[in-house]
């Protein structure tokens, strides 16, 4: 469960990215965070992953107050998440397989089990035949799918995606959204930020709308 | 335990991979570290050899005591008693004038010298070994022996070994000072190598932190990297010294044969070699640790 209680975030330059935001996303729920560029979507996700700390209010993830975690505990919190970034953050000097393997190496997985898991994750996103390729040789859509494979390989309880479709055309974007929905269907909590209203059409999931740092819907 | 081992195995493999990825830079760094270690270690080996060699030419703190030519048998006996009772004397050996003459005649090229002389011109003598090498003890003993009426001359045979000993001490001090300076150089070389790696791998470090890597997980490969560099640098130094010994061993052996001495150059013992490898690996680790603490831990995901 993710819970925000009167959370505000003000950056050192005085910009207030979030103002008194409160909401709860239950375990297994899928929520879309919608808003214009600069509305505070990315800040909200960064607060959940403890990349930023809130100025006021509390962010609770799986019962842990993220703002009160000490630095040593943050990596272990992050292992609960599968993170998908707008700019993918892939390692271009490593193969597709090695990119997906990284979270399992970090968790200290036994190598045979890790290989099985990596192949399963690549199969899930349709990249099994490209495991030896370098990310630079993949298309934008494939790179985003690779990022998703890396996010799901350690079977996280929460999947967080920041604008995962922003650089993709509509067809690829729908593919990506379909992958997220499939994880939601097996009980994973999914939180996706997007500014693309077309992606919201026909989705039965919960939508949180942010405008100028405030939750408006 | 398995997870702990897997973390270390992963870090070690990654460190070797990173070393292999920059072969030229790696060779250059190992060369610098190897040469840096070989200088003080080489001086140490040289000094050890000189000390061993000096030991072959001198059997300890000795004095030669020459009696007067007309010394009687009873005076020889008195001298012997004096030496037995003196607390500074460890042992002594009497060389009668007749034996001295025989030895002299057997010396190559000196046999004919005595033929033109009447009688034995050599005195009775004692070779005295003192209990310790301190200058004070030797001087006290020398003074006491000189005061004996029947004694003609006392010669301090170990004076030159004392001078050599002082020189060796000075040499060892210089080797230590050089070791400290070059150790700092090794730390600086490893520190800078790791710093450059951290700068080029900034994105990778950020990604790893974002997906749950602890500081330990990120630091470990760099620490292994520095340790391997230090250790291999130490091995390179050992090889440089070995090569030096191999090249000079035969000429030195030949020279020593001319002095009728059987002497072979000493190499670093197993214990000394292990200490050098551990020390070099430790310095590599220290350089890496300093670099990691001052650069890597400050990187946070943006």
UniProtKB/TrEMBL annotation, chain A:
Membrane topology recorded in Swiss-Prot or TrEMBL: Peripheral membrane protein
Which organism was this protein described from?
Nitrosospira multiformis
Q: What is this protein called?
A: Cell division ATP-binding protein FtsE
Source organism's superkingdom?
Answer: Bacteria
The chain positions of domain ABC transporter read 2-216
Gene name of the record: ftsE
Which InterPro entries does the record match to this protein?
AAA+_ATPase, ABC_transporter-like_ATP-bd, ABC_transporter-like_CS, ABC_transpr_LolD-like, Cell_div_FtsE, P-loop_NTPase
**Places the protein is found:** Cell inner membrane; Cell membrane
The UniProt keywords, alphabetically, are:
Amino-acid transport, ATP-binding, Cell cycle, Cell division, Cell membrane, Membrane, Nucleotide-binding, Translocase, Transport
Subunit composition and interactions: Homodimer. Forms a membrane-associated complex with FtsX.
According to its record, what are the GO cellular component terms?
Answer: plasma membrane
UniProtKB/TrEMBL annotation, chain B:
Tell me the compartments it is located in. Cell inner membrane
Where the record annotates domain ABC3 transporter permease C-terminal, the positions are 177-292
Q: Which Pfam families match?
A: FtsX (PF02687), FtsX_ECD (PF18075)
GO biological-process terms attached to the record: cell division
Q: Which domain of life is it from?
A: Bacteria
Q: Where are the transmembrane segments?
A: 21-47, 173-194, 222-247, 274-297
The entry's keywords: Cell cycle, Cell division, Cell inner membrane, Cell membrane, Membrane, Transmembrane, Transmembrane helix
Entry's Gene Ontology cellular component terms? cell division site; plasma membrane
The role this protein plays is: Part of the ABC transporter FtsEX involved in cellular division.
Q: What is the protein name given in its UniProt record?
A: Cell division protein FtsX
Q: Give the organism's phylogenetic lineage.
A: Bacteria, Pseudomonadati, Pseudomonadota, Betaproteobacteria, Nitrosomonadales
């Amino acid at each position: 469960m993710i819970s925000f209680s009167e959370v505000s975030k003000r950056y050192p330059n005085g910009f207030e990215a979030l103002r008194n935001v409160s909401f709860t996303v239950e375990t297994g729920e899928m929520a879309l965070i919608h808003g214009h560029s600069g509305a505070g979507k990315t800040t909200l996700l960064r607060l959940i992953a403890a990349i930023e700390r809130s100025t006021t209010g509390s962010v609770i993830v799986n019962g842990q107050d993220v703002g009160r975690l000490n630095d040593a505990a943050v990596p272990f919190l992050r292992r609960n998440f599968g993170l998908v970034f707008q700019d993918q953050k892939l390692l271009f000097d490593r193969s597709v397989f090695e990119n997906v393997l990284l979270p399992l190496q970090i968790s200290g997985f036994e190598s045979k089990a890790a290989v099985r898991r990596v192949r399963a994750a690549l199969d899930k996103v349709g990249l099994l035949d490209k495991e030896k390729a370098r990310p630079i040789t993949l298309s934008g859509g494939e790179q985003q799918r690779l990022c998703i494979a890396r996010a799901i390989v350690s079977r996280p309880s929460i999947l967080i995606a920041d604008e995962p479709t922003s650089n993709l055309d509509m067809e690829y974007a729908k593919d990506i959204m379909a992958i997220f929905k499939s994880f939601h269907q097996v009980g994973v909590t999914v939180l996706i930020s997007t500014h693309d209203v077309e992606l919201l059409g026909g989705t039965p999931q919960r939508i949180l709308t942010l405008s100028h740092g405030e939750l408006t819907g | 335990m398995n997870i702990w081992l897997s973390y270390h195995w992963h870090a070690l493999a990654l460190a070797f991979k990173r070393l292999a990825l920059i072969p030229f830079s790696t060779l250059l760094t190992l060369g610098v570290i190897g040469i840096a270690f070989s200088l003080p270690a080489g001086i140490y080996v040289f000094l050890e050899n000189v000390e061993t060699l000096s030991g072959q030419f001198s059997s300890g703190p000795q004095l030669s005591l020459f009696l007067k030519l007309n010394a009687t048998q009873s005076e020889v006996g008195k001298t012997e008693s004096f030496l037995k009772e003196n607390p500074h004397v460890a042992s002594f050996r009497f060389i009668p004038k007749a034996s001295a003459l025989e030895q002299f005649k057997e010396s190559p090229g000196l046999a004919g010298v005595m033929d033109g002389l009447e009688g034995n011109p050599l005195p009775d003598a004692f070779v005295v070994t003192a209990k310790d090498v301190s200058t004070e003890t030797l001087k006290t003993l020398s003074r006491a022996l000189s005061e004996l009426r029947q004694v003609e001359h006392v010669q301090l045979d170990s004076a030159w070994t004392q001078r050599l000993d002082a020189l060796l001490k000075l040499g060892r001090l210089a080797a230590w000072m050089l070791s400290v300076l070059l150790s700092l150089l090794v730390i600086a070389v490893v520190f800078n190598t790791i710093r450059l790696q951290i700068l080029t791998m900034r994105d990778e470090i950020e990604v790893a932190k974002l997906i749950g890597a602890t500081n330990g997980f990120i630091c470990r490969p760099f620490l292994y990297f520095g340790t391997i560099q230090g250790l291999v640098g130490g091995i390179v130094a050992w090889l440089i010294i070995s090569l030096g010994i191999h090249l000079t061993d035969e000429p030195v052996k030949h020279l020593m044969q001319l002095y009728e001495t059987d002497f072979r150059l000493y190499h670093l013992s197993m214990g000394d070699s292990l200490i050098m490898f551990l020390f070099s690996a430790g310095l590599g680790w220290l350089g890496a640790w300093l670099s990691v603490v001052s650069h890597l831990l400050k990187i946070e995901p943006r």
